[in-house]
């Protein structure tokens, strides 16, 4: 638990801008200087050809782990690279303490290729409830934030996802086939139908931002790693959107979800996509 009598809401009211400052600093110090300047020895593969990690990922996560844990005494950190090194550390997300969920470079493939479509994702949760999130795309110069009950914002402007235009095919970003089981592939095939236009996803964080901005209609993802989804799910919720698993219930960042799952601009679209995923499987 938090080591003071301060609630998470009180902490956010007082220190949310400090979180943003640390995220910007991590990007400025550890990520952007390496963009389009990565040496071969600074890039490694983890579990497959599409699962990359760089020194920028590692060093940015180390900086954020130290800075954010110090900012909120009693909190813990679940970071992508730390969990890769010690899978048992993921269990902290299911505990009672406030937990920072960090993806230092979401879209590492794009980052390695020198493309601009990557971002840093941070979320603050407790007991499976998302309280705040930060999505920073430094090259695109976009910073999105969300606080539960207080809305979602992009560079200070309120985000409202809205609803898809009637009669137009739904624009749905889907998981890369390499990260899906046979059952999940069958679920995703349910999207290949009239009225839906599926496409491969890019950075998960930027796909969620596109939903919150009303530039895309839905996602269909087949993996649970909280660092990819936590920040974006709250951003979409606070912009008026919704998320559902193939079983028709909201996605739980602590795991145990029936996959694939969807996030969408509005409840009706989420329900439609979830039904298609269930029918396909």
Describe the structure.
Helices cover 35% and strands 26% of the residues. The strands form three sheets. The chain has a seven-stranded mixed sheet, with helices on both faces. It is an alpha+beta fold. It contains eight helices and 14 strands. The chain folds into two domains: 8-158, Fructose-1,6-Bisphosphatase, subunit A, domain 1 (Fructose-1,6-Bisphosphatase, Chain A, domain 1, 2-Layer Sandwich); 170-280, D-Maltodextrin-Binding Protein, domain 2 (3-Layer(aba) Sandwich), CATH 3.40.190.80. It is globular and about 50 Å long. Strand 8 and strand 9 form a beta hairpin. The protein has helices spanning 8-31, 55-71, 80-85, 108-112, 182-189, 204-213, 226-238, 267-280; strands spanning 43-48, 51-54, 76-79, 99-106, 119-126, 129-137, 142-147, 151-154, 157-158, 170-174, 196-200, 218-221, 242-245, 261-264.
> Class by helix and strand content?
alpha+beta
- The strand count comes to 14
CATH class of the largest domain: Alpha Beta
The CATH homology group name of the largest domain: Fructose-1,6-Bisphosphatase, subunit A, domain 1
What is the string of SSEs from the N terminus onward?
Answer: HEEHEHEHEEEEEEHEHEHEEH
Bin the strand percentage: 25-35%
Average pLDDT level: 93
Strand order of the largest sheet: 3-4-5-6-7-8-9
Distance between the termini: 40 Å
Please give the oligomerization state of what you see: single chain
CATH architecture verdict of the largest domain:
2-Layer Sandwich
How many domains? The number is 2
Biggest sheet, in brief? 7 strands, mixed
| CATH topology name of the largest domain | Fructose-1,6-Bisphosphatase, Chain A, domain 1
């Amino acid at each position: 638990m938090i080591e003071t009598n301060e609630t998470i809401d009180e902490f956010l009211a007082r220190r949310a801008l400090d979180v943003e400052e640390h995220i910007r600093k991590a990007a400025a110090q550890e990520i952007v200087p390496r963009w389009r300047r990565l040496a071969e020895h600074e890039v490694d593969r983890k579990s497959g050809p599409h699962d990359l990690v760089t020194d920028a990922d590692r060093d940015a996560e180390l900086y954020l782990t130290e800075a954010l844990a110090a900012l909120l005494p009693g909190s813990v950190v679940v970071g992508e690279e730390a969990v890769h090194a010690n899978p048992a550390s993921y269990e902290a997300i299911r505990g009672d303490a406030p937990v920072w969920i960090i993806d230092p470079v979401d879209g590492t493939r794009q980052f390695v290729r020198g493309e601009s479509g990557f971002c840093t994702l941070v979320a603050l949760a407790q007991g499976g409830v998302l309280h705040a999130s930060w999505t920073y795309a430094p090259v695109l110069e976009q910073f999105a934030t969300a606080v539960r009950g207080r809305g979602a914002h992009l560079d200070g402007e309120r985000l409202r996802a809205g609803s898809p235009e009637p009669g137009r095919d739904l624009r749905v970003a889907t998981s890369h086939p390499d990260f899906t089981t046979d059952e999940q592939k069958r679920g995703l095939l349910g999207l290949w139908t009239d009225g839906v236009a599926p496409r491969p996803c890019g950075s998960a964080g930027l796909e969620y931002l596109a939903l919150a901005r009303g530039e895309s209609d839905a996602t269909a993802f087949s993996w649970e790693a909280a660092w990819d989804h936590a920040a974006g799910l709250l951003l979409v919720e606070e912009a008026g959107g919704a998320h559902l698993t193939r079983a028709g219930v909201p996605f739980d960042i602590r795991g145990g979800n029936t996959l694939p799952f969807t996030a969408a601009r509005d409840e009706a679209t989420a329900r439609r996509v979830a039904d298609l995923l269930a029918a396909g499987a």
